[in-house]
Amino acid sequence: DSPNGDASDSQLLDAVWQSTANVLEHYPPEVEVAAHAVALLRWFDLEILTAVRSAGRPSYLERRTDPPELASEEVFRQLQLLPFVEDHPVRGRTLHDLTRQALSARAWRHDPGFVRAVSAALITHFDARLQADEGLALDELVEFAYHALIADTDAGIDLLDQVWNSLDGVQASRVLDGLVRVVEEVGTDRLD
Hints:
- The chain is mainly alpha-helical.
- The chain contains nine helices and two strands, in the order ααααββααααα.
- Strand 1 (85-87) and strand 2 form a beta hairpin.
- Helix 6 (112-131) packs across helix 7 and helix 7 (138-151) crosses helix 9 (169-186).
- The mean pLDDT is 86.
């Protein structure tokens, strides 16, 4: 590790941010906003994109998009055309790691309320599926757990306690292991 590691990491993320912003200028505003929302997720599909679009627009974006004019299907289609959107190894699509880190860092630095709104929208989506007895796969439960803590740490702990009680020991252990990996990946400074 060099003493300038944090500064060079920050410069790299700023450069990736600028490059990403330059690409997104050529797409409809709804696609730009959606890219910022899905950057806060480890993966997304059409269903997830539709859910997180309700979080609105980050305050640091200059273009206004209220109300959304493009349907989620069209936004999803156009997101897949972006050079930094790729297949996720397990589920759906994702942004390239550096792009996701750059957009996520920008959101945390300039509009943590947007981050929490995206997480809350995702939690509402997953909770509705749980209430409908659809169940969630292990990777979905990990995302649910992480974003519950991001949206509102205290309420997230209560919600996770409810979910935990519905899991058997092996499932709970796997979700906890996955949650630990996610928190290690993104850092604990984002939890209240």
